[in-house]
Amino acid sequence: MKCTYTITGFPGFLAKHLIRDLVTNQYVSKLYLLVLPSMKSKARKMIETLITNYAIEYEIIETDITEPSLNWEQSTFEKVSHDTTHLIHLAAIYDLAVSYELANNVNVNGTHHINQFAKSCPNLEHYVYYSTAFISGDREGVVYESDLTQPVSFKNHYEQTKYEAELLVEEIKSHVPTTIIRPGVVIGDSKRGETDKFDGPYFILNTLSSLQYAPILPYIGQHKARANFVPIDYIVAASIHLLHSETAINKTFHLTDPRPYQAQAVYSMITNHYLGRQPVGRMPFSLARFMLQFAIIRKWLGIAQEALDYFVCNVYHDCRETLNELKGTGIICPDLATYLPQIINYYKKHQHDQTKHVSIK
């Protein structure tokens, strides 16, 4: 049966891909797209493209999730809450260097207001909230999907506020049919390499692009942290299954790579595929972090200082609940080595189309 989906975070990267697959798989009869006023024009153009050849109603609603009742008129609130059968909350601040005040307002207060909306929906069948695997902060070792233990510290305010937001979502599970999804570091499509922008994991390629003529390209430090990259097509396929699975309700899922490579192995693979070279020697981690204190160097390399922390935190995000849920569906996370060439080829073709970004998603 086709349903009415209310989605935040459009026209963002993941929201766009989710809607495309929901539409093509004919799950949707109507879409409510909750967007910032500044993104309304872009959202309208994008949704018109996504629903071409499909008889789908949609409504773009200017929304401020940081305001009570989402800053809507009462009549709008009542209409959308009555119609909504599936609610997907993606909107968040993903920047690693974000201030706590901004991250808290969007990620925590915004999630509280979406939770209140979810509780008001009389016909709601499923609420899916996107957290992040990195609410684990500085924890090392194995982190399970059932874990929601506050770490001693967080690497940045993004992680902290996503943890605080997930606590709020956990509280309403007894009242609302809820699924929490914790993605790893989302990368481009595993078949075509396609991505919307070169932020997050692309900081490695940004840095190599700036340093490609350097006589040596050293490893950074001697740490054995894992790099948990997951392609967008896996995230979308798994999400759509979870969104329509009764056995996924009131559970939390790590959409992470079950066999992640060590970060330095990934760096070596990327250097080899992108530049035809191998890293030589090692730069002390403390020196790399010191150099990235300077804005001019961060801008030149296209990397946030906070990104370095992911090279030293040796955590494994266990995803056995996800693997059990997806068993028999044919939905699997591909091995990074098998699709990394597509990711790099896409970057090579399009790297000059965009400015370098320093946030992570």
TrEMBL record:
Q: Name one Pfam family in it.
A: NAD_binding_4
- What are the Thioester reductase (TE) domain coordinates in residue numbering? 7-238
Gene3D superfamilies per record: NAD(P)-binding Rossmann-like Domain (3.40.50.720)
Q: Which InterPro entries does the protein's record reference?
A: FAR, FAR_NAD-bd, NAD(P)-bd_dom_sf
Write the protein's name.
Thioester reductase-like protein
Q: Which organism is it from?
A: Alkalibacillus salilacus
Lineage, uppermost ranks: Bacteria, Bacillati, Bacillota, Bacilli, Bacillales
